[in-house]
Design brief:
single chain, alpha/beta, six-stranded mixed beta sheet, globular
């Protein structure tokens, strides 16, 4: 606990004294006194930790899909093998948002909205609304069954918002939302599990050019980000679409890829990302008192893949948890899959998602990176930013 960390901080200072000759009660009373003395130094810093409200897909789902009738689930082994248990996170350990909120000083991870324990004062620290298989468009991920797409995630936040206002009042709620970090990680499934769905979407791609599909995504997402602002969000991190052509599933699905990334999904992702950056600039200019931040995860992840050896990885193609396929990207990670011994040596955990080791690198660059990684400011700067009402 946070108090425990303060207690031991105080005790470590006290151990410089010679306690061998002290009566036990005197020793304990001085330990307690010194512990209390050091509480302000260590504990009060935690009061500045911003609430975290998370929207997105399986890259940041903390377990919402556990409560849905869907094929997109991760609450079974070997998922979470380095987390302690399979919680519904689609990786071996922590997600990017888990790592970020811990780095900002939180000793608790943001709880999934659908969990029955996400109630009361816990909600004031933030809520995770993300859902595996979801996307910007409501048709995205329909092959999986139930999923909570971005429009529905915003509906769920609107409900949370009203609950918070009823508990602490409108003024205090507005202050909480003004200082909170809102992050939106979406768009990948609109490509992987919509426009580029193998076989199923072949006809659509012949009828709908990628430019038109991207325009549809962008116009819908602009409305969603604007609605988030209207609901009180002011510090909003917008994650772009990563190099989806480089995930093991895409390498597997594209017979022309050979030993490289699948070209077309990456090209469409970059087409979308270019327009998304313009949207973020426009929102910053037009929505008063807000700070939208554009996080270039495409650039970060592509750099990791291209230079994987320099980051300490041994494989950038084969997922750690694999079962079938030329690179192990055909079948989702499950109890029958083979799991690598050293997860820290793999960029990908399964056919779709990074390992915790890769997530740590991504999170570090979003937290403290320069404007080539995250623009116009990084997440640490955003957390410390004081916005006018």
């Amino acid at each position: 606990s946070l108090f425990s960390s303060c207690y031991f901080h105080g005790e470590s200072q006290f151990k410089t004294e010679n306690r061998s000759a002290m009566p036990l009660l005197v020793y304990l009373s001085q330990v307690i006194a010194l512990s209390i003395l050091f509480i302000p130094e260590v504990c009060l810093a935690g009061k500045n930790i911003p609430a975290s409200f998370v929207f997105g897909d399986s890259l940041v789902d903390a377990g919402n899909n556990n409560y849905l009738t869907t094929l997109s689930k991760a609450n079974y082994d070997p998922n979470g093998i380095d987390f302690g248990s399979a919680t519904g996170r689609f990786t071996n350990g922590r997600t990017i948002v888990d790592i970020v909120i811990q780095a900002l000083g939180s000793d608790e991870l943001t709880s999934p909205n659908l969990a029955p324990t996400t109630r009361g004062s816990l909600v004031l620290k933030g809520v995770n609304y993300a859902s595996g298989g979801s996307g910007i468009l409501n048709s995205t991920g329909k092959l999986f069954g139930d999923r909570i797409n971005v429009d529905a995630q915003l509906d769920n936040f609107a409900t949370t918002r009203q609950d918070i206002i009823s508990w602490i009042g409108e003024s205090a709620a507005a202050k909480l939302f003004r200082s909170a970090i809102f992050s939106v990680t979406t768009g990948s499934n609109d490509l992987i599990n919509n426009y580029f769905t193998p076989v199923v979407s072949n006809l659509e791609r012949k009828v709908v050019p990628p430019e038109d599909f991207v325009d549809t995504m962008i116009s819908r997402f602009r409305l969603q980000l604007t609605r988030l602002y209207q609901l009180g969000a002011r510090k909003i991190v917008v994650i772009n679409v990563g190099p989806v052509g480089c995930i093991p599933f895409s390498r597997e699905s594209d017979p022309t890829a050979g030993n490289e990334c699948s070209v077309e999904p990456n090209e469409v992702a970059q087409m979308y990302n270019l327009q998304l950056k313009t949207v973020v600039d426009d929102l910053n200019s037009n929505l008063q008192g807000s700070r939208f931040v554009y996080a270039d995860v495409f650039r970060i992840v592509y750099d990791i893949i291209q230079n994987y050896g320099s980051y300490g990885f041994e494989s950038e193609k084969v997922p750690c948890c694999s079962l079938a396929g030329k690179v192990g990207g055909l079948i989702p990670c499950g109890p029958s899959s083979k799991v690598c011994v050293d997860r820290s040596k793999y960029v990908f955990w399964d056919p779709y998602h990074p390992t915790e080791a890769a997530n740590i690198i991504i999170a570090r660059r979003l937290l403290s990176g320069d404007t080539s990684d995250i623009f116009p400011i990084n997440i640490r700067q955003l957390a410390n930013l004081k916005l006018n009402t």
